[in-house]
Write a structure and sequence with these properties.
The structure is a homodimer of 356-residue chains. The first copy, chain A, is an alpha/beta fold and 356 residues long. The first copy, chain A, contains 13 helices and 13 strands. Helices cover 42% and strands 16% of the residues of chain A. In chain A, the strands form three sheets. In chain A, strands 3-2-4-5-6-12 form a six-stranded parallel beta sheet, sandwiched between helices. The longest helix of chain A is centred in the middle third of the chain and has 16 residues. Chain B binds a DNA duplex (30 and 30 nucleotides) through α1, α2 and α4.
Chain lengths: 356, 356
DNA sequence: CACCAAATTGGTAGCGCTGCCAAAAAAACC
DNA sequence: GGTTTTTTTGGCAGCGCTACCAATTTGGTG
């Protein structure tokens, strides 16, 4: 694998080049049409226009027509900033997520975004990189937009974050975890149960010398919960974890591959390895493919997440499939409906696959 | 691969269950602290508080302390909705993206989000599902938030979208494409060049009987551009495309696998296959693994995107690596700097890999 | 045609903050 | 000490819209 060359003119990081065209175009905001102007043009009052546009309150058919005509003619676009300020409660929903590299979060956003768009809500987001301090800062910044709800990953937040969210008066949804006390609404599944069932499955299949390959557990606390209950279950069945390899940094296929390589270098007689998630597990799978390690006869592999790609490899990956998109959907539905505080358990599905 | 059971209490899709706890908690917005209250508490004027908080204009050290103390004591959180309305120009940046399933877009968001957060901008997004009509509707909804900029994928938009964006007066950034006329700013690379170079590479390697497996081209116009210039290049070298298999729906590993299977069923004597992207190519790769088709001696595989996973499989995938994160970063930087209209070519990198 | 209820409509006070301007206080200077 | 500058301050008019309320029109009734 060789990087041959960079192509097509510009190089990344170079000062941007300008296209030949219109360099002197608009730079500042041009005067924008307001509700008052529409009202004037339509020959009606401001509140009437507002009512027509929101289809709220009563107005006659011909008033409606005149207003819509004026809106069309002037190219009016309502200003939701002003609307939100004037009314009570915004239609913004804030997502404070750990990462966009881990497909889990785009999946959640995808589910939520579909529901929110249908209900004319707007999603805003920021990324914490799994840093609780950054989470606090970003949550604070989010609250400044007075969202209808803030959605966060899991239950582990700084005191400051919790205090702020409590005081904010907006809905709080904690996602993808159920092992802990919810601030308001929680939607997800139990990571402890997932760890437990993964262990139980491997034991049931007769594996006894089990190892673990994972990524940074202090940051990804949900992975940490899976791992600890996985170990507890092994202990309870008298087959304690034989070896572990924890890699710095985020989960990735490459880290999974590297992790398994290192683990086996130290402890070669394992019969199964539990990975912190499917990305890592795929790395392990590829390592075995490349090294000619027979799966699952020589070594079994078990992941977590149930990514689609796990079903497309020659031997379907044994894993636990989590309802990530549904988590986003349900969370959004509850927010839209202003549902009472509750914890919703979406469960998960154990996929037996062919690797364990 | 068998789905054994759903676990841990709840079932997905079932009516949400309530946790035993506090069902009667807060439902409506609690009174929130305003700037005026802080001013009162600190014994200064409103504008003074505003100046201190934004660190703008002048004020004495002790005034600053008193204000900050009051802010702390009351737990004041500035209201950016009001702030934005009162000032000129918002710090919202709107992303109207085709998909969150295709990793390309989370990658772009990731790059952009980092830069935006540093500059105290806020990202908002919505997802079009590659539907130009939906793009128009969502762009309109976005403009209602009076963003500083709207970021879209590519150049193919409806007339209505273009008109609206032009009239909006806000900055427009078109991402991931360079083959067309930009409305304002464009950041990306040439998909046509990518298609051309992919073809040139395969030809240079001596492949002559080349096929294509792709996903829905009408929707993903950038993939369409790559494909058409790929074909033109083959034609120009007297080795026209031998066969193609276009699958409905989004790109996925499974579709790639299925596509190659179908393609080979019809045309078995190909020596190389070009895929619409790496997801599809990985599917093809796995198909070959499963069927024992030797790569690249019996069949070569070439992708597009340069996903990390392509480097972790036993034979690194031959592909073109695109600067997705950088695209987001540069785009965000240009917006933050209010740069003049321009087209920035970030180029791409051809990875020779081991599959072609 | 007078009279009352229902359906429409317009006026206007904010929503919480910023930007401008003039007033007040502090510092510098003669 | 008296000015002139410079630095700090507070007041207040909006930003564009919604919510409330009162005014007006419409429609029906007796």
């Amino acid at each position: 694998m060789v990087a041959t060359r960079w192509s097509s003119g510009g190089q990344a990081g170079q000062p941007p080049q300008q296209s030949g065209s219109n360099v002197t175009m608009e730079f500042k905001h041009q005067p924008t049409v307001t509700l008052a102007e529409v009202a004037e043009a339509a020959g009606v009052g401001e509140s009437t226009v507002s009512r027509v546009l929101r289809n709220h309150g009563s107005f006659s058919g011909k008033t409606r027509e005149r207003v819509m005509a004026a809106v069309e003619r002037l190219g009016y676009v309502p200003n939701r900033i002003a609307g939100t300020l004037a009314s009570t409660g915004s239609r913004l929903v804030a997502f404070v997520i750990p990462s966009l590299s881990n497909i889990v979060f785009p999946d959640v956003l995808r589910g939520a975004s579909a529901v929110l768009e249908e209900n004319r809500y707007q999603a805003v987001f920021s990324v914490t990189d799994y840093d609780p301090g950054k989470e606090e800062a970003l949550a604070a910044a989010m609250l400044a937009w007075r969202p209808a709800a803030v959605m966060l990953a899991g239950f582990e937040h700084t005191e400051g974050t919790v205090k702020m969210l409590r005081a904010s008066g907006c809905r709080v949804v904690e996602l993808l975890d159920l092992d802990g006390d919810a601030l308001d609404i929680a939607v997800g599944f139990s990571n402890r149960a997932a760890g437990r069932e993964s262990a139980a499955f491997l034991l049931k299949r007769g594996y006894r010398r089990i190892g673990y390959v994972g990524h940074d557990l202090k940051r990804d606390t949900r992975a940490g919960k899976r791992f600890s209950s996985f170990c507890e279950t092994l202990d309870a069945h008298d087959a304690p974890l034989v070896a572990r390899e924890i890699l710095e940094g985020a989960s990735s296929v490459e880290n999974g591959r590297l992790g398994l390589e290192r683990l086996l270098a130290r402890t070669s007689d394992l019969d199964a390895v539990y990975f912190s998630n499917d990305d890592m597990a795929l790395g392990g799978y590829f390592h075995c493919l490349a090294e000619g390690i027979a799966i699952p006869s020589k070594l079994a592999i078990f992941g977590y997440n149930g990514l689609d790609i796990g079903r497309a490899i020659p031997q379907p990956l044994s894993t636990i499939r989590t309802p990530r998109v549904a988590t986003g959907q349900i969370a959004a539905q509850l927010v839209v409906a202003n549902a009472p505080p509750q914890a919703v358990d979406l469960g998960f599905e154990l996929i037996e696959g062919a690797t364990a």
